[in-house]
């Protein structure tokens, strides 16, 4: 006996069951039209008898029979299936039969390209009572969306994420990972950063659970390198998960090469390389030569001027010919400099690399034990045989000394530069590959109650949370795009950038220059005495010291009669280029002795540089030795601010194959103001006779005008002495200058004086 849902008993030969058996037999022999009629008839009888389970089965089979009829004489009755599903689920409470009916109906609808109806049918059966069934239905619904005539890609991805979530709740980790990975293909690169972060985070978690550590690292890496819009707390959680996973990876394979870390960002093109020691600060009255430092901004015009000065002095040294292998000295290499050649560095002199880091996260990053990664090939440039290449020798301090920064904190969304140094101890070829460091987070790095944690992190000691991983980042610099030949113009080709591949040459002398009592302001035409101190701080003697400038009329080291060993620079009598001496004790006549005459100053020829020899004792400066030389300065004739460039050139006594000379730069800034305007006229005086009675003497009339208009400058001038620079004439006496007071000139005043001029 069979009992329906209403509790009625069906006798074995009930007509409804006989019709159902007949329908099943017709269905089995593929007589679908007759089967449909029998199922349809049985359905009515079951409904009349309230046998809902049988009625739902008859509806289901009637719909299938209608679908399988050849030629499709009638449309597929989808409402039959919907009624059967509703009956199984709501009345009979049989979810297994309902699920079977849904899957069957969905396949029928998909075969008729009715993907939208199939997806809606599948989604309606999802519920909270079975995660596995809901995950299966959501995944099938997602495939319906992607197979439409106009694919609904975003709905596919969304339902795949829902399916992955339900698979994860059901404990099916592999299926969950597969669904999230398929959804990631849609969201990736579309700018939906929050969705990407969620998917990558889940992929990383599931991969780590399944011990797919490489996939887990890759997923967490993508979270960190994208411009995340997550709040700081969430970003901190992502970073900690990443560090934890990475630490597990490195512990499993401790001998593997250092991994590439995603944080912080490195702007490789902004990398700058400086060769040489840092500039010394000013000491008292001593002012060090400005030279070049990393703190100076690059100026292409100034760089070209220094190059022209160096070319001028090198051509003068080589008798007017610039050598074909001449390479201008470059102390600081950056994105704007010419990096097509291998730069030259000197052994035992530091190489400073400035690396620009950027923290894209809203939480601070702590880098510890930060240093450069390099490769070195020892090479003796005077020998035939070269040494073996030392790969990644960050610990081989015998060849290259490496300076490490113990702690380097980068605050949230901050761009910060780190200056890392290498100390070459041997000649050869150096290749700077990248940086190596420990990446970690700072304890309590999340902002709480509106208080920025970085305020408390400026003390120099940072508390790490103990979770850090060691890794590396490579410095990959792309050279300038080539655009010279036709082939280069029609294709995209880039030239080399060799700023990170210096050649370490033999030891060279190193000069430091200090200026003592060097003025910052002068009157136009004023002559002032200063001192220059030359110090050889290397272990090699230097020679052939010269200075070149485009303003040779501004300075001189004096004539051949100048004293090379001056008195103390602080002595007041040395502040003038002139010294007054009494020539005859019995008379009041005086003569002026000058150690720098007008012929010693260079002649400005429209900006053409002039090479001036520096008179060193014995023409050599020994290691550790220093010498002070007097320098007389003459204020430029035009008022205003003047920048005057000095390029000091020197060589080593021993000739080297790679580096022939070295240079030192200095820029002096002089502010000049107006002083006196002088006009002199001379006429022959037959009435005046000299001591021998000859009458070919002269009268000199001098008009002096105070043209200084600055209210803050010199308000008045006192003319107390006039002297002659002629070798054939001397000033005998003044006609109208008072011996006691002289001439006093105020603003815009002029004065006249006349003198006797005798042979």
UniProtKB/TrEMBL annotation:
Regions crossing the membrane: none
Domain TPPC8 second Ig-like: 524-664
Top-rank taxon: Eukaryota
GO CC annotation: TRAPPIII protein complex
Domain TPPC8 third Ig-like, first and last residues per copy: 667-749
Domain TPPC8 first Ig-like residue range list: 295-523
Pfam family, one: Ig_TPPC8_3rd
Protein name: Trafficking protein particle complex subunit 8
Organism expressing this protein natively: Podiceps cristatus
Lineage, uppermost ranks: Eukaryota, Metazoa, Chordata, Craniata, Vertebrata
């Amino acid at each position: 006996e069979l009992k329906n849902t209403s509790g009625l008993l069906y006798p074995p030969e009930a007509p409804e069951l006989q019709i159902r058996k007949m329908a099943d037999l017709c269905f089995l022999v593929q007589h679908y039209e007759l089967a449909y009629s029998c199922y349809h008839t049985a359905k009515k009888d079951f409904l009349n008898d309230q046998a809902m389970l049988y009625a739902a089965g008859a509806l289901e089979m009637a719909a299938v029979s209608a679908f399988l009829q050849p030629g499709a004489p009638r449309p597929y009755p989808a409402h039959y299936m919907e009624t059967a599903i509703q009956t199984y689920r709501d009345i009979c409470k049989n979810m297994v039969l309902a699920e079977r009916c849904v899957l069957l109906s969905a396949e029928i609808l998909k075969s008729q390209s009715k993907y939208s109806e199939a997806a809606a049918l599948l989604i309606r059966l999802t519920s909270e009572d079975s995660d596995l069934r809901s995950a299966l239905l959501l995944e099938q619904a997602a495939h319906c969306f992607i197979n439409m005539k106009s694919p609904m890609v975003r709905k596919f991805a969304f339902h795949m994420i829902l399916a992955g979530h339900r698979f994860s709740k059901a404990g099916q980790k592999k299926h969950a990972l597969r669904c999230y990975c398929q959804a990631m293909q849609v969201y990736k690169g579309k700018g939906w950063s929050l969705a990407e972060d969620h998917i990558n985070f889940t992929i990383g978690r599931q991969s780590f659970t399944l011990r797919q550590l490489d996939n887990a690292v890759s997923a967490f890496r993508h979270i960190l390198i994208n411009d995340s819009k997550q709040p700081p707390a969430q970003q901190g959680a992502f970073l900690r998960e990443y560090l934890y996973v990475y630490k597990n990876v490195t512990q499993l394979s401790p001998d593997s090469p250092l991994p590439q870390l995603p944080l912080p960002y490195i702007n490789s093109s902004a990398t700058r390389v400086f060769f040489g020691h840092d500039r010394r600060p000013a000491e008292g009255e001593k002012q060090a030569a400005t030279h070049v430092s990393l703190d100076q901004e690059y100026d292409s015009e100034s760089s070209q001027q220094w190059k022209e000065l160096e070319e001028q002095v090198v051509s003068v040294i080589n008798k007017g010919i610039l050598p074909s292998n001449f390479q201008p000295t470059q102390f600081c290499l950056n994105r704007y400099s010419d990096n097509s050649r291998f730069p030259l560095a000197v052994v035992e002199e530091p190489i400073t690399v400035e690396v620009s880091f950027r923290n894209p996260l809203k939480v601070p990053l702590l880098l510890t034990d930060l240093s450069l990664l390099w490769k070195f090939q020892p090479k003796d440039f005077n020998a035939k045989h070269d040494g073996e290449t030392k790969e990644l020798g960050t610990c081989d301090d015998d060849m290259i000394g490496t300076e490490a920064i113990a702690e380097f904190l980068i605050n949230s969304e901050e761009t910060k530069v780190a200056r890392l140094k290498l100390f070459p101890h041997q000649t050869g070829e150096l290749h700077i590959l990248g940086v190596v460091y420990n990446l970690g987070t700072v304890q309590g790095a999340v902002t709480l109650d509106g208080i920025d944690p970085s305020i408390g992190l400026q003390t120099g000691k940072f508390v790490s949370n103990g979770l850090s991983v060691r890794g590396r980042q490579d410095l990959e610099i792309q050279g300038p795009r080539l655009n010279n030949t036709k082939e280069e113009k029609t294709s995209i080709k880039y030239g080399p950038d060799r700023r990170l591949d210096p050649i370490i040459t033999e030891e060279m002398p190193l000069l430091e220059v200090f200026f003592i009592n060097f003025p910052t302001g002068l009157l136009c035409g004023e002559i002032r005495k200063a001192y220059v101190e030359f110090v050889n701080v290397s272990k090699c003697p230097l020679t052939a010291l010269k200075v070149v400038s485009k303003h040779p009329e501004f300075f001189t080291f004096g004539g051949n009669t100048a004293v090379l060993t001056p008195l103390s620079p602080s002595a007041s009598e040395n502040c003038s280029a002139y010294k007054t001496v009494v020539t005859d004790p019995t008379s009041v006549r005086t003569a002026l002795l000058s150690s720098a005459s007008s012929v010693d100053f260079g002649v400005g020829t429209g900006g053409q540089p002039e090479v001036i020899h520096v008179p060193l004792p014995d023409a050599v400066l020994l290691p550790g030795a220093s010498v002070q030389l007097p320098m007389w300065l003459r204020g430029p004739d035009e008022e205003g601010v003047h920048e005057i460039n000095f390029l000091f050139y020197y060589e080593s006594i021993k000739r080297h194959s790679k580096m022939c000379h070295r240079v030192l730069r200095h820029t002096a800034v002089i502010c000049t103001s107006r002083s006196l305007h002088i006009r002199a006229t001379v006429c022959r005086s037959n009435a005046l006779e000299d001591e021998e009675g000859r009458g070919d003497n002269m009268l000199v009339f001098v008009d002096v005008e105070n043209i200084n208009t600055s209210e803050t400058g010199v308000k008045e001038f006192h003319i107390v002495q006039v002297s002659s620079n002629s070798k054939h004439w001397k000033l005998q006496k003044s006609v109208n200058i008072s011996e006691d007071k002289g001439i006093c000139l105020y603003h815009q005043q002029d004065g006249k004086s006349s003198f006797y001029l005798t042979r």
